[in-house]
Amino acid sequence: MSGGFRTGTSTAPGAVRAERARILSEILDDLDELAGTAVRTMRAEIPAYAAQDEAFHADVRDQVMRHYRSKLAVLFEDRTVTLDDIAFTRRAAMRRARAGVALADYINAFRVGQQVFWESVLERAGSSFAGHDAALSLAAPLMRYCDFASTHAANAYMEFQQYAAAEAVRESRDLLETFLTGSAPTRGRQLAAAQAHGLGPDSSAPLLVVIAVLLPRVPGPRGHAVPTGPDQGADARHAACAAIARTWGNGTRTLSVVRHSEIVAVPVLGPGTGPGELCDRLQAIRENLLSEQIVLAMGVSTVIAETAQIPQAYQEARAALEFLPEEGGVAALPRITPFQYLALKADDTARHLIDPRVTSLLAEDRARGGVLTATIRAFAVADLNLRAAAERLQIHPNTAQYRLRRIRERTGRNLRRVNDLVDMLVAIALHDSLPPDTDPERRTPVTAADDRRAGRTYGRSDEPR
């Protein structure tokens, strides 16, 4: 052991006991100064402690004093430390966890307190053999006390963290259930939780509802499905829930809850933030989770003005999920026009009403890159102005004229007539709402461009480029 101790010379037991009592008594007399030294050392060596306020440091000092007194009682009585001796540790551990102090920093503070106490013992041991032997006799019980107290404190810290996390999850879940009934909290912890998420009664910020569902498999190379790996199941849902909760809006953390087999979130739109930006964030979250083999299908409701509309928005988000293919994606109603929505919701009867000549043309055109479909859309966007449509498509007007003539020859539809143009646009929307591999006339592989035209990335603009 350091300190220049000589252990080869035997000292009378009585002299060692006397020196031990003297050392402990001197420490007891200087306990206040010793506790101050310990706190100053903690602040110097532990940045997390240095960043705290004076009330925190006063609490730490009080805890150091309590530990030093308990330590001295155990040493004076020459006995083993018990839980009764350190019963005060549990509440202190809870306060450190609540203050955001990391467990490693909290345990490091125990080490600092022990070090300061031991250095005080060495200082008071003096240069006599009896003093050295007395200090050595205190080393083992001091180490036992520190190990016992720090282990108990760490367990209390972890218990509180788990409780706090479970309590927060429970409060969030209860809050969501309240909103889903069409009610709103008016007092107590639920009201505080609602305000923390920007969903309080005084909030006027617009909001949405997002539903995410974990998919068990993801398409692999050449269309083969591969398992999502060990993250499949409850752990993956909670990981996705935590990621969605980070889609902050209006300066608050998003309310995000694992509810049965789905994740339900109620993000608030901040000032200057539109639904498009939120949908971009959700798309980015989904893509990031894919790298962790967590595959989601996400439905986003329309924008609502108050929490009383959350039940309606919840049903919208669930309905949006039906628009997604098996591999998932993000179906964002704020980015879908009413026309697209009606097409996506159409049944087989609506598709059977389409002229077979139109169906045949659209199927062939999609397989060849969709140039005719793009021309029809551009012509509609340009208000039936052929030259403007050609400019939009970056083609010669004669080419655009040729395409319109070809469409008329194949389908019997004159796109300069409003009724015929509407029929074609409806047919395109219905045709695009079908997955490419369900098209019996499709012969070419699906491309990224096809996916965009077929609506696989819902909420993206499908205007002609």
From TrEMBL:
Family matches, as InterPro entries: CdaR-like_regulators, CdaR_GGDEF, PucR_C-HTH_dom, PucR_C-HTH_sf, RsbRD_N_dom
Residue ranges constituting the PucR C-terminal helix-turn-helix domain according to the UniProt record: 372-429
Domain RsbT co-antagonist protein RsbRD N-terminal: 32-170
A Pfam family recorded for this sequence: RsbRD_N
Residues in CdaR GGDEF-like domain copies: 192-322
Bias type Basic and acidic residues, positions: 439-465
Residue ranges of the region described as Disordered: 433-465
Annotated coiled-coil segments of the chain: none
Family (UniProt): Belongs to the CdaR family.
Record-given protein name: Transcriptional regulator
Naturally occurring in which organism (per UniProt): Planobispora rosea
UniProt lineage: Bacteria, Bacillati, Actinomycetota, Actinomycetes, Streptosporangiales
